[in-house]
Design a protein that fits this description.
Layout (H helix, E strand, L loop, with lengths): L1 E7 L5 H14 L4 E7 L14 E11 L2 H14 L3 E5 L7 H6 L2 E4 L7 H19 L9
Parallel strand pairs: 1-2, 1-4, 3-4, 3-5
Length: 141
């Protein structure tokens, strides 16, 4: 099982890029994960293998706690199917992408720049794995 984070555009800010790379390196201790960048929203699906479970990020999605995401990662691993997370740009994701999604996840009702949303996804996936392993990173209830 592999995670793919498919996002529109590149992260131009060096600090955000370094933070994303740090969480990607941490995650690789627990699972296989890769990042793919799409030139625009219309090309998101080109970067998502057809057999993958697609989770799109949208402010209209379900809000999950970190513990709930940890549960989802456990279920997805048991299923063995790859999971792709799609992060749109300023205009969000086009309807064909959202229609293909099996789940829609909202990081918050706030709107984040797509670069920051990518960092939040990496951090939350890392947190989910530390929760599942009982490691001290997560101090929430």
């Amino acid at each position: 099982m592999r995670y793919r984070v498919v996002a529109v555009g590149r992260i131009r800010d060096a600090g955000l890029r370094a933070a994303c790379d740090d969480y990607l390196d941490r995650l690789k201790r627990y699972t296989r994960i890769e990042e793919r960048e799409a030139k625009d929203e219309a090309r998101i699906l080109e970067a998502v293998p057809e057999e993958s479970r697609l989770v799109v990020l949208s402010e209209r999605g379900e809000e999950w706690s970190s513990a709930q995401l940890a549960e989802w990662t456990g279920r997805w691993e048991m299923d063995g199917r790859d999971v792709a997370f799609a992060i749109g740009g300023a205009d969000g994701l086009p309807e064909p992408v959202t229609r293909r999604a099996e789940r829609t996840w909202s990081l918050s009702r706030l709107t984040f720049p797509h670069e920051l949303a990518r960092l939040l996804v990496y951090e939350q996936l890392y947190r989910a794995y530390t929760i599942r392993r009982g490691e001290p990173y997560h101090r929430g209830s």
